[in-house]
Amino acid sequence: MVTGENKTDILIKDSLFDNDQISNYHLSVELSKKSISYCIIDKQKHRCLLLSSQSYDLKDLHLILNNDDYLNKKFISKSISVVNFPNTLIPSKLYVEDDKKNLLSINHQIEDEELLSDKLKSDIVNLYALPRGIYQTIKNIIPEASIRSHSSILINNCIHLNQSKETMFLYVKDSVVHIVISKNKDLLFQNKFEFQTKEDLLFYVLFCIQEMNLSNEEINTLVYGIIAKEEFNILYQYIRNIKYGNKLKDISCSNEFNNIDGHCYNLLYRQFLCV
């Protein structure tokens, strides 16, 4: 079973997958600096038909995109979420399109990056940077794909769940933890932290809880992404109401996917609903 700590490359295909129907399917891609994952979705049935994930070096992105068996097929639509790249949230009323570099430079060092933005449900703009070479590679090879920040998809999904009390969502991938805290449909907190050890991970999570004047004894916490067992266990020791996020109910998968824990690729499955 893939529980989140297994780094082995993955390829799972539903028995209902039909190559002749690819033009009616949606392709969702999740791209980070260390790995690339994608799934193929039957949009009419809200069913995941194929899942692929592999580690790679970012400089080899053009080789992956050009040589993969599925990425260059003709789908009805394609989307790409970019993970663990610099981003900042700005209230819509303060966002100025022509001032993107100055706005993002407040919290990040910006050099030769393509600056992009997503409008979120909570009247917030997510401004983010993608290395220009990576952006151009995507646009040259998959020009029809829409690009969004992974953090935008995470935030929108947290708001979509509409929890009645403060809830913390943790998304872990490639030794980076994304932390979102929301209540009802309000976004209360969002940030991400790179960590080296499980103790670092615990520190950042408890720090955010303290900063928001919340209690680790009370806050409901849902964990998604690729998180090692020992990382989850140390969080469990200090956060009373913590559990893995389940596979979302509005996406179905066949029995071929039973060896994949629901929290691992949750946002990848749901990506097509957010584009």
Gyration radius from CA atoms, angstroms: 18 Å
What are the secondary-structure elements, in order, as H or E? EEEEHEEHEEHEHEEEHEHEEH
Helix content bin: 10-25%
**Shape verdict:** globular
- pLDDT below 50 for ≥5 consecutive residues: which ranges? none
The proportion of residues in beta strands is 25-35%
Structural class: alpha/beta
Task: Note down, in words, how this protein is organized.
This protein is of the alpha/beta class. Among the domains are: 87-149, Nucleotidyltransferase, domain 5, CATH 3.30.420; 153-244, Protein of unknown function DUF3822, C-terminal domain (Nucleotidyltransferase, domain 5). Helices cover 23% and strands 33% of the residues. It has helices at 61-67, 100-105, 132-141, 150-161, 198-211, 229-238, 266-270; strands spanning 10-13, 26-31, 35-42, 47-55, 77-82, 87-91, 113-119, 124-131, 146-149, 167-173, 176-183, 186-194, 220-225, 242-244, 252-253. The chain is globular and about 55 Å long. The model has no long low-confidence stretch (mean pLDDT 90).
